[in-house]
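Supplementary Text 2. Reproducibility record for the structural model of the 410-residue chain.

All settings were left at their defaults, and a single model was retained for analysis rather than an ensemble. We include the record here because the model underlies the residue-level annotations in Supplementary Table 4.
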Amino acid sequence: MRTLFSVPIAFLALLMSEFSFSQGYQVNFQGQKQQGMGLAGTAILMDGSSLFFNPGSVAFSNENSINLAVTPILGNTLFTDSTTGQGYRSNSPIGTPFSAYGLFQLKDHAKLKLGLAAYTPFGSTITYKDDWIGRFALTKLQLQAIFIQPTLSYRIADVIGIGAGFVISTGNVILEKDIPVQYESGDFASASLSGSALGFGYNIGIHYDLTKKLSLGLNYRSEIQMSVDDGSAVFEVPEGLDENFPDGRFSGSLPLPKVLTLGAAYQATEQLTFVLDINRVGWNAYDTLAFDYAVNTSSLEDTKSPRMYESTFAFRGGGSYTFTNNLCIRMGGGFGFSPVQNGYITPETPDNDRGYITAGLGYEFGDHFSMDATFYYTQMTRTGHNTETGLSGTFETKAIAGGIGLIYKW
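Retained model, structure tokens:
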């Protein structure tokens, strides 16, 4: 049935989304230094955050460190309906993705490094007004996701480091939408879906110092199948329709795509460094989304939905300059192609090709403590439609993020 068809689709699509702050549902707010330089850093050891960007780079660390960071995100989307011309704006709280890294070296094994990373590449709350035209697709989403990554890194030569991390991905989500069934009062029925998801993957990388000034990095983050095996579906409907919309359980899965990144870093002078990353994201893994309800009725059937995402490229780059007083400034930007084809645009991921800019500051307070701060800005406009829900119009999205990170090393 078309009215329920979009409920599970939106649920799992949003399990992987970050309110359209990135291409598709990928987010790269995992390191403050890298964020300042356009979200690039695969070919350079910055700090413990390299556990995410390239586990091979941390083999060159000569110290223990603890990193803690948070990047509050303020975003807003305006949807303008193509038929009526009326606008509907989202009303969402500030998102707070965070990261934590521990990087350690064994006393008697200088070439071997151990790391533990925890980061939130997906997590936000998005809400729309109760009477907005897309309320049958989505009214509210609340999402939390945490990735845990234990890591080993080894310097196999003076200029080569390799590393690998095992990734455990956990998530929780609540999604609410209206159903086009009305009470006598005129209010619409509603659906609320909630559940926990679990997936596993890996993160491997190699770092190579080609010369004293030029280094290369190659990082591969595997595809992860996020599975909801025991989700809960609750329906608020008129009393006579209870049997058509029974509360119950459901299951499904969605791929978090593989990402292959080639990076380069060039130290032009002792103070000036440039970085560049090229991402290839395997979005083609997300071609179909299937959902299975434990109890089926004529109004609540198992579903299969074509999503037809396309694999894409993204380009990120920037630079940093360190002053003699331990102050560092960073600037960068990037551009990514959208995997979302017309006909599959949703209120959760109204994605489009887009560029962004970043900036950052870093300061070292002595030998053990340092602080980094960043700024990020992006905006995009996407006009199109969704063949399943019939929603058609223009999405205008703007997002601003300001991050701060603290590092203690010894």
